[in-house]
Amino acid sequence: QGQLVESGGGVVQPGGSLRLSCTTSGFTFSTYGMHWVRQAPGKGLQWVTFIRSDGSSTYYADSVAGRFIISRDNSKNTLYLQMTRLRPDDTAVYYCVRGMGLWGLGTLVTVSS
Amino acid sequence: EVVMTQSPLSLPVSLGQPASISCRSSQSLEYSEGITFLNWFQQRPGQSPRRLIYKVSNRESGVPDRFSGSGSGTDFTLKISRVEAEDVGIYYCMQGTHWPYTFGQGTKLEIK
């Protein structure tokens, strides 16, 4: 079935950077496209970014394009999200998602001074 | 980007009664070869979302058959034939046809 475990969340000042990781197990990571989806406190879901199974293509929401970079290491079965120039409105739980069918528990990112 | 509009945003339903959620997109979600990437998700209180329906009408493994999806083009519907207590939560539609993917605002289902 598979498991996704996000890590790397925390409190960061506006303008700062953070790198999230998503460690996967129980499935062949290298054959799946992967997403990050976020949810601000008390708000709805927002799709953030996607990377193809081989890393050949990436897509971003307009709100994060140019600030966030999605990447993956198929040898380590791990997905990453490098976040830079963070803003208070980036505060959210960030979910790692396999093809939209399998979700992790999320990691909370708080951008605050 | 494609705007997804759900209605209603709040849905009080009595146990055992049917429920229906509408989702409309600002442009057609039909991909080439007649495939439409429209998903429905359920988020129970305090839990991660889980996908109920993919490609308009296909139920995920383990999803009760009281959940059904239908629609085409720009108009889609999630129906619950008989609401149970465990169905309380927020339901989201999401399109995966056009980049960037986009979600609806969410519909909060509660027991009346």
Structural notes for this entry:
The complex is a heterodimer of chains A (113) and B (112). Chain A is mostly beta strands and 113 residues long. Helices cover 0% and strands 51% of the residues of chain A. Chain A contains no helices and eleven strands. Chain A has strands at residues 3-7, 10-12, 18-25, 34-39, 45-51, 58-60, 68-73, 78-83, 92-98, 102-103, 107-111. In chain A, strands 2, 4, 5, 6, 9, 10 and 11 form a seven-stranded mixed sheet that branches. Chain A has a four-stranded antiparallel sheet with strand order 1-3-8-7, with no helix packed on it. The termini of chain A are far apart. The model of chain A has no long low-confidence stretch (mean pLDDT 97). Chain B has 112 residues and is mostly beta strands. Chain B is built from no helices and eleven strands. Chain B has strands at 4-7, 10-13, 19-25, 38-43, 50-54, 58-59, 67-72, 75-80, 89-95, 102-103, 107-111. In chain B, strands 2, 4, 5, 6, 9, 10 and 11 form a seven-stranded mixed sheet that branches. Chain B has a four-stranded antiparallel sheet with strand order 1-3-8-7, with no helix packed on it. Chain B is globular, with a radius of gyration of 13 Å. The mean pLDDT of chain B is 97. Chain A binds chain B through residues 35, 37, 44-47, 50, 59-62, 95, 100-101, 103-106, and chain B through 1, 39, 41, 43, 48-51, 54, 60, 90, 92, 94, 96, 99-106.
Radius of gyration of chain B, rounded? 13 Å
Provide the low-confidence segments of chain A as ranges.
Answer: none
Please summarize the sheet with the most strands of chain A.
7 strands, mixed
Radius of gyration of chain A: 13 Å
Q: Number of DSSP helices of chain A? A: 0
Q: Quote the distance from N terminus to C terminus of chain B.
A: 36 Å
The sequence of SSEs of chain A as H and E is EEEEEEEEEEE
**Overall pLDDT confidence of chain A:** 97
- According to DSSP, the number of beta strands of chain B is 11
Q: Determine the structural class of chain B based on helices, strands and strand pairing.
A: mainly beta
As a percent range, the share of strand residues of chain B is over 45%
Oligomer: heterodimer
Largest interface, per-chain counts? A-B, 18 and 22 residues
Shape of chain B: globular
Helix content of chain A: under 10%
Number of E strands of chain A: 11
